[in-house]
Amino acid sequence: MTFFKSTSRNGVIALNVLLVTVLTVIVFVPTSDAQNTLREGTSYVAISAVASGINTGVVYIMNTSQQELVAVAWNQNRNKIMTLGYRNIAVDAQSVPLN
Fold first, then answer.
1. Residue 3 backbone class (left: φ over 0; alpha: ψ -120 to 50; beta: rest)
2. Dmax (CA) of the chain
3. Is 0.85 topped by the overall pTM?
4. Among positive and negative, which fits the CA dihedral 20, 24, 27, 29?
5. Res. 70: pLDDT tops 90
6. pLDDT tens across 23-41, in order?
7. Edge-to-edge strands, sheet with 44-51
8. Long-range contact pairs involving 68-73 (C-beta distance under 8 Å, separation at least 24)
9. Which ranges in the chain belong to alpha helices (H)?
10. What local confidence, expressed as pLDDT, does residue 9 receive?
11. Which residues make Cβ contacts (< 8 Å) with residue 81, sequence separation at least 6?
12. Closest alpha carbon to 85 in 52, 55, 59
């Protein structure tokens, strides 16, 4: 009977050590917080796409309140995001004839 008590006690001790370790890792691991620099009423839409000649794909990001569109892609050689193009959708819409 003492074998089961010591095995059970050792299991509880091991479980407690594991839980304390997990808690320590969760508390002390550095985290990053998003920066909330958006103005009130600003919203964005992002759409991923495939473009010829670009292996990593393209993301189109539109600021719906300012009606601006930008296309970006990941540049593997430089390890950074590169801008492919920009359009002001509001200006484009005004240039369309209303016939």
1. alpha
2. 94
3. no
4. negative
5. yes
6. 887 777 766 555 555 567 7
7. 44-51, 54-63, 68-75, 80-88
8. none
9. 2-28, 89-94
10. 83
11. 72, 73, 74, 75
12. 59
